[in-house]
Amino acid sequence: MTPAQHDLYLVIDEWWKKFGYGPSVDDLMTVLKVKGRGNVHRKMKRLVELGYCKYIKGAARTIRPSYLRIRNIE
C-alpha cells in the first residue's frame, strides 16, 4: 500500500466510524486536498483490488473497509 493509498484508507475508516456510511469522492477530495476526481477514484479502486476495502452493490457512497459487515435491511 502506498502512502497515498494509506491516507485514503484512513479517511474512509474514520468516516465510517464517525458517520456510519462511506464518504463520497467529493468528500475524499476535500479531506485529502486533492483536485483530481479520477486520482481519488483510481486509488479507491486499487484499495478494493488489494482487499482493504469493498464496494456495497446498489448503494451510494459504497466504499467501506473490508472488516465491516453490512446487512441490507429492507
The arrangement of helices and strands along the chain is HHHEE
CATH topology tier name: Arc Repressor Mutant, subunit A
| Count of folded domains | 1
Q: On the 0-100 scale, what is the average pLDDT?
A: 88
Radius of gyration: 12 Å
What gap, in angstroms, lies between the N and C termini? 36 Å
* Spatial shape: globular
State the helical fraction: 40-55%
CATH architectural name: Orthogonal Bundle
Stretches where pLDDT falls below 50 for ≥5 residues?
none
> How big a fraction of the residues is strand?
5-15%
Overall description:
The structure is a single chain. The protein is mainly alpha-helical and 74 residues long. It has a single domain (3-65), classed as Orthogonal Bundle (Arc Repressor Mutant, subunit A). It contains three helices and two strands, in the order αααββ. The chain has a two-stranded antiparallel ribbon. Strand 1 (53-55) and strand 2 (63-65) form a beta hairpin. Helix 1 (3-19) packs across helix 3. The longest helix is centred in the first third of the chain and has 17 residues, at 3-19. It is globular, with a radius of gyration of 12 Å. The model has no long low-confidence stretch (mean pLDDT 88).
